[in-house]
UniProtKB/TrEMBL annotation:
InterPro entries: Acyl_CoA_acyltransferase (IPR016181), GNAT_dom (IPR000182). Pfam families: Acetyltransf_10 (PF13673). Residues 5-145 form the N-acetyltransferase domain. This is N-acetyltransferase. Gene3D superfamilies: 3.40.630.30. Signal peptide: none annotated. It comes from Geothrix oryzae.
Length: 153
């Protein structure tokens, strides 16, 4: 890990780097489908990345109207950089886009406690409709299936 990470609001990582980071994080996303990963990012208007030199080590993906509402879709940090403030900084950069934006997110089971620690409030007034199609299964199986890809992150 280098001494100084850089953060970018306009540098969009390549799909392969995203897939490797998601596998390492582990953030269960359809990393078996590089085209779907590319489309996920093409459709997002907020992409904030953290870099250790040329290596992608953190990533936030979301949507906002840049005035009132925002949704954090993904927050991934490489395990070697977790507990170093990378995720917190990515969230701060999103919050800095406009003070009037109220951000919401759906936390992965492994990350639920993290958001409370960094000052987010739990909400009870949300609803969801499960997606049709791909379902990732248990974390352990997902990690085992993608261990080779995670090693590339």
């Amino acid at each position: 890990m280098s001494a100084a990470l850089t953060y970018s609001l306009d540098r969009r990582p390549e799909a392969e780097a995203i897939r490797a980071l998601y596998a390492a994080a582990p953030l269960r996303r359809p990393i078996h489908d590089p085209e779907r990963i590319r489309r996920m990012f093409d459709g997002s208007n907020v992409v904030i990345s953290a870099w250790d030199g040329e290596r992608l080590v953190g990533l936030l993906r979301g949507w906002t109207d840049f005035v009132y509402d925002g949704y954090i879709c993904d927050l991934a940090v490489h395990p070697a950089h977790q507990k170093a403030g990378v995720g917190r900084r990515l969230l701060e950069l999103a919050q800095g886009l406009d003070e009037g934006i109220q951000w919401v997110l759906q936390a992965a089971p492994l990350a639920r406690d993290y958001y409370a620690r960094v000052g987010w409030q739990k909400i009870e007034n949300g609803w969801k409709m499960d997606r049709a199609g791909w379902r990732p299964g248990p974390y352990e199986a997902y990690q085992a299936e993608h261990a080779d890809l995670a090693a590339k992150a």
